[in-house]
User: Fold this.
Amino acid sequence: MKLGELTQRTRDIQEAGRNILTLQEILRAPKSRGGLGEILLERLLADSLPRDYYQLQHRFQNGEAVDAVVSIGGNYVPIDAKFPLEDFERMIASESEDERANIKRQFTRTVKKHIENVAKYILPDENTFDFALMYVPAENIYYETICQSDIYTSCLQNKVFLVSPNSFNAYLQAIVLGLKGLRVQSTAREILGRLARLQNDFNSFQRDYDTLGSHIQHASAKYDDASRKLTRFSDKLQIVSDIPQERLPEGSSDTVEGTEVRE
Assistant:
């Protein structure tokens, strides 16, 4: 490796280190962590769902706004991002078991408070489902939350499910399959509706066809009757035509009913 290339790589490493420190400083502020969680949530939704199936910063009638909602069949799944990083870092950095236990209890209280805050977005009268999702944008923090029985109990009581980037992606894939099923169901209803209209059209044609057939049968019967009458009339006419002339009354050849026939 050339000296110039080594120098450049050293500079790149130093720059990356400064960026990491800058990110850590940014994440120290709770508001910045919340904003980052919302950005990560938005990115995950954009990568997994069509834009028409989710909304960002959905506002309810009480003025509260949830980070996102996913629309399924006309109803909403509320999703809010929470990033309890500070307590988690303190717990990891703790040096004694007693200190760790105290911080862990604080971490549990913080997460349970977040769960209760997310639960307020469950508003079935405003077309939400009776559950919500709390998005934890870091896998290590999410793992710590699901290992706490108190947090799990709080989730069940408040009907709030915790999801991480990986597990939330699985949820979204299930939602995608559900949306495809809804589209198939909608298409099936449309097909059934068209079949019903075709059935009505067929029934109308069947009635007209039966009426036409009845008229044709009636006309055929009349035709057969007229044909028989014409045959009988032709037979009678033939009989009259075959009568010998000498058997006709005198003068019948020259006059008809007293009227002279002139040549």
